[in-house]
Write a structure and sequence with these properties.
Blueprint lengths: L1 H15 L13 H5 L19 H4 L2 E8 L5 E11 L2 E18 L5 E19 L5 E14 L2 E15 L4 E7 L1 E6 L11 E9 L5 E10 L4 E11 L4 E8 L2 H4 L5 H6 L2 E9 L2 E10 L3 E11 L1
């Protein structure tokens, strides 16, 4: 039933041309889950969302599995590298909504069908000669499929990071582009948004804090996200995040659910050149998102 409601809302968004291709903003990366959507400027946690972070990320191969309620799941694999001062990365992510009972126009049961999204991205970044700022951009192809019907979007997301004595300042434009193959004849609107980020290491502590302000163009609303990374000397990393979406998830059902609504938390452990991570995020009325990931440095 929950999955039926989820997909019904998803399909309705196409028909109303409000926030089509909502899968573009669905989390497919474990660390993003544990940071409640924050962490745009954390070097190993940023998922290339601000492409200018590539020079800080090091070289790695990362695999993630994210499990949502109602048997909805997401997977991603990403890697990066550098050559002659140029940094590049690649990411493939998939969102699977599961199998559904098919019915014809007379409500007769037909063959089951599936629904899902695939996003293929290439990322590039180049530091300035002074090292004071980095510019980057990602481009990709987003394919959304329901049964045998497909819709395609070309995505473009540029970003920049400035380094100052106060900390790191980031600006990124997420999910801009154009639709070249739609589900319907109506004009689809891509869920683009702008993110302004600030991150700073706390003096004398192995703690980095970040604040992100996201403005969503189609829905004309905004969100603040606050996240942190605590690095221990033994390779243990703890992370967490909250956002101003908490007020939208509060219900009268449970005090504890309201208390932990819209909260991400995670833990990672680095052993040699391998990083293991498990992360979770709580919805007020809707349960938990759980993610596991493995990163291999090379």
């Amino acid at each position: 039933m929950i999955r039926f409601i989820f997909v019904s809302v998803y399909l309705t968004s196409f028909l109303l041309a409000q926030t089509s291709f909502s899968g573009l903003n669905t989390w497919t990366h474990g660390q993003t889950v544990g940071l409640a959507g924050g962490g745009y400027l954390f070097s190993t946690q940023n998922e290339f969302r601000n492409p200018a972070m590539l020079p800080e990320s090091g070289r790695y191969l990362k695999i993630n599995l994210v499990k949502y309620p109602a048997d909805i799941s997401a997977h991603s694999i990403m890697t990066n590298g550098n050559k002659n001062g140029h940094r590049f990365g690649f990411k493939l992510s998939r969102l699977n909504y599961g199998l559904f009972k098919g019915r014809d126009i007379d409500n007769h049961i037909t063959k089951d069908y599936s629904a899902g999204d695939i996003h293929l991205q290439a990322v590039y970044a180049k530091p300035s000669n002074s090292g004071r700022f980095v510019i980057g951009a990602s481009g990709g192809l987003f394919i959304s499929q329901i049964e045998k019907v497909k819709a395609n979007v070309f995505t473009f997301s540029p970003g920049v990071i400035f380094y100052s004595r106060l900390g790191e300042i980031g600006l990124s434009f997420q999910n801009y582009g154009f639709v070249f193959d739609s589900y319907t004849d109506t004009e689809d609107k891509i869920p683009s948004f702008i993110v302004t980020s600030f991150a700073r290491k706390v003096p004398n502590l192995p703690l980095v804090l970040e604040a992100d302000y996201s403005y969503f163009m189609v829905s004309n609303n905004s969100t603040f996200t606050f996240s942190g990374l605590l690095n221990f000397k033994n390779g243990l990393i703890m992370k967490g995040g909250v956002s101003t979406k908490k007020s939208d998830q509060i219900t009268d059902v449970s005090f504890l659910r309201n208390l932990f609504a819209d909260m991400g938390i995670g833990i990672s452990y680095e052993f040699e050149d391998i990083l293991f991570a498990i992360d979770t995020y709580t919805y007020g009325p809707g349960g938990f998102v759980i993610a596991v990931g493995i990163t291999v440095l090379y």
